[in-house]
Amino acid sequence: MTHFAMVIDLNTCVGCNACMAACAMENQSPVWDARKWRTYVHDKEIGLGSDVNRRFFPRLCNHCDNPPCMTVCPTGATQKKANGIVFVDQDLCMGCRACAMACPYHARVAITHADIREGREFYGSDYHRTSASMDKCSFCDHRVEEGRKPACVETCVGSARMFGDLDDPNDPVAQIVASGAARPLMPHIGTRPNVYYIDDIKWRG
Amino acid sequence: MEVNMTYATQDIWTWWIAIYLYFGGLGAATLAVTFLTDMYLKPHRHLVIWGAGAGVVLLALGSMMLFGHLLDKPAVLAVLNPLILFRKPDAWIAWGTQFIIWMMVWGVLYALPYVRETEFPRKVPLIKGLIDRPFVVTIAKLVQRFHRTVGWLAVINGVGVAVYTGLLLQSFPAVALWHNPAVPLLFTVSAFSTAMAFLLLLMYTLINDQADEHIRVLYERIDLVLIAGELVLLFSLYQYLKNGSESAVRSLQLLWNDYGWVIGFIGFGLIVPFLLELKGVTRGWSTRVPILTASVLVLGGGYLLRHYFMYAGVYAYPW
Q: N or C: which end of chain B has fewer CB within 10 A?
């Protein structure tokens, strides 16, 4: 069985935001609204006085094994594939936003009718959205099904984002996770996330 | 994973969901209490009509709050279909929607024989034309025959709505204030307390009948116990938040540093009505004003509880 996961190396993320751009173009995100990116890179300054470092922190849907967004979804629009990818069926979603309330990773965005109108102008005739709904990262499942990597992984200049199969012991991603070098965010909540982070050591010396 | 945490409240579900939860709990509990009173204490036409009316109107208004904020309104048809419970038995909104619908259906049916006996609906042309139709008359006779079965179906769904309002918030694991077992209890107790207050208000004004004195006394006593229970639940919630996670501690700071919560809700919404009703139960009042005051305060407090709960939920983001 395939079990997709992503590892993000915070040591090699340079904060170029290419992942955000690639994701937005691939998934036709509402780029006109800064709050509605499927993936986002936080840019933080850490330290005091002259000893300050910038820290880039990419975030996205964690494709949890126990996703609270899926549990609370009343229409069944949020679903999980056998390969671990959590996705939204936009035709089923009524947009109650319970998923956004349930998500501990702030990974849900609302696509409104106004966004769809704007999207038709911005993306032209290729625009695929037909109804307003909640949106989230899908690990670019349409690409993954073709054997390709998610757009953000493929475009990452520092190879900070790695994508692979946790159930394949030869997969580098599975090996990094098994080694304990990469760890998930807030595992204590019980969501069993599938996005792992390699801690950055540069700002801690 | 060593991260810098960011703590934030949300602006997704705000005052309008507080109204949804408030009207849902109040309407459903009012319906349940009036039907139980009618079935086991004293057959009471006016109380049932008011209970069913409040249940239907408040639930309709509350549901409109949620419906009005949906991104894709036609897709709501999926949750209106009862079969959704087989497809999404883990989603509380699906359960809540079905509880609301069936509470309304059984509630209207239970009240139907009483409505046919009442003069006022016959003055409304649309209702008059409807309640005299042969199939409505047949339904009314059937309801009278299965009086308690229909009543209990409405009550069970009503209690389901009241409990659901708390379970909905409890299903969000990221927020310590919401994701704990005290919340469904607190919201259920508050729903029934506000229902008692609403009915006391009603029975001291619009359907004021000396023959109902024993019902009023019972409602006052039940409300007193419910307010006491709510205070105990709040105390235990305070203890849980005080020694809980950072999300919990920050919610506690938001709530207990706010005059609206401490003085508005706990002070005037719980303690003052508790004292007013306590004196009413133990020594009695010479006028109805103190109980009316207590009822209005409890009703206001019920909304404040849900309003502050929505705004004080703190998320802990690891970045």
A: N
